[in-house]
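The aim of this short unit is practical: by the end, you should be able to scan a pair of folded records and say something sensible about each. We start with the first protein, listed as its amino acid sequence and then its structure tokens.
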Amino acid sequence: MTKITHITLALAALGFAAQAQAQTQPIKPFNPQIQTGGDLTIDKLRQQNLTVVKKAVEGIRLTLPQKVDQFTQFVAIDSNGTRLIYTFAVDAGPKTDEALRAKGKKMAPRVLNGMCTSADRFIQADIALTYRYVNKATQTEILRVDADKKLCPEKKPNK
């Protein structure tokens, strides 16, 4: 026989031996910490959410600034406890802060709906969101929209 045949037979024998050994040893069941039930206290859940928020801020900051549309740019993200705070700069030209606030009030329900939809996983995990819109020229806040479990309707499961 050739060397290649000997090597192939040796590898096959090792594979069969490993498979036979694996079948005789019981496999430990997958048991992630989050599913252990009773030992996950409220304090542990809060700490987990603080970590999620911190990591989200770290990751998203690396991608900023981002263009949202022709007038809006996503420029900053911060956190306060388990609240993510997104800051958007609006370049509205010569419009006054008051005019932008009036327009923002009309847009607030649509912004909230978008937040509840696009960040549903954060909301359901008790991570709150704030979207701040500032006038790019004056850096004055012109709109602030908050979203959390109380403000966002709970999604119904698909049937």
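Turning to the second protein, read its sequence before its tokens, just as you did above.
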Amino acid sequence: MKILFTEDDIKNEVNKIYIEDDDVLLEGEFITGEGLEYVITGSAIIEGEKYHDFQVQFVLLEEPAEETAKAIMEMEWDWYDYLC
């Protein structure tokens, strides 16, 4: 399932994630997946360089109450991995 960020999500920066351990700022365009497993696709800033079509796979600790971008992004991640 492909889940797009709404205009409100973008305005409220729901689509932005800072991964502190790796000093990566990800600005998501959309999320794919369902249940506990998802992939967020967007652009990332790493060491001052911007990378497009950047993907992070992540698994949630619990399923979100609803499959909206906001609900998914508010959940705690169990683990994540960079796909590209």
